[in-house]
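Sample 1 of the test manifest.
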Amino acid sequence: MSTAFFTDPACLTHVTPDGHPERVARLNAVLDALAPLELDRRDSQPAPEAELLRCHPQDYVDRIRQAIPASGQAQLDADTWLSPGSWDAALGGLGALLAALDTVLAGEARNAFAAIRPPGHHAETATPMGFCLFGNVAIAAKRALDHHGLERVAVLDFDVHHGNGTQDLLQSDPRALFVSSHQFPLWPGTGRAEETGPHGTILNLPLPPGTQGADFRHAWDSVVFPRLDDFRPELILVSAGFDAHVDDPLAQLALTEEDFVWITRRICETSDRHCAGRVVSVLEGGYNLDALAASALAHVRVLMEQGA
Ligand SMILES: [Zn+2]
């Protein structure tokens, strides 16, 4: 057993305007940081468009595809852009994540990491948002439930921004528990503790600006991990954004690599108790290249240590 690793070169063809924080260099920084590791590196195919329909209506999928420019860039909202490679990046990245899911659920690896972009946790049912086109991690959760037949899947999101899209896409499904810790107040403005969803399966942990590791850890230990023990997930999916790092330019939390080590270890221990260590993690945010690279490396090293 090992840690499987997936990416797709098409993820490097989604090009944003100069100065945009969600840029090609992010993924290159992560790939360079992980290059020395002895990961079980595997290939994947682009996701079929039908996978998008697990979470998005056909007319939304069509709208995004038709908005892809033949050259240059097209703007979907204040933050979210398309380039000629964006469609291949979106489906290639999703394909890498779904292959990670399938590999872990087939028992071929204990856990897996998918290094992809654009990220996904802000994309709502029919709205692109915050650099995101499609709800990657929510689609993976739906595939685990509807295709693989799991009954309970947990999605844990420690990106500094609220995972509003994942919440939107999963809150009507009581088989999915979604947990998001995030800076609050901060864009996108959602993620209050009172937002628990129609089935009580949404758990939001808003953290004030300046929150450091000790308070972050206390929040997860006092609220999230006991809740996960009650829920007894059969799989844990992780929206691994590293923009809660103290050096990140987009937010004001004060985590370090050691905090990402800590939470990754806790997630793996929880998975060991309930689902044979099955963890599938996917890259979301992280905008200081050095902090992103160091944090992703720390995260994946723990996955490898736990997957050994
Ligand atoms: Zn973020």
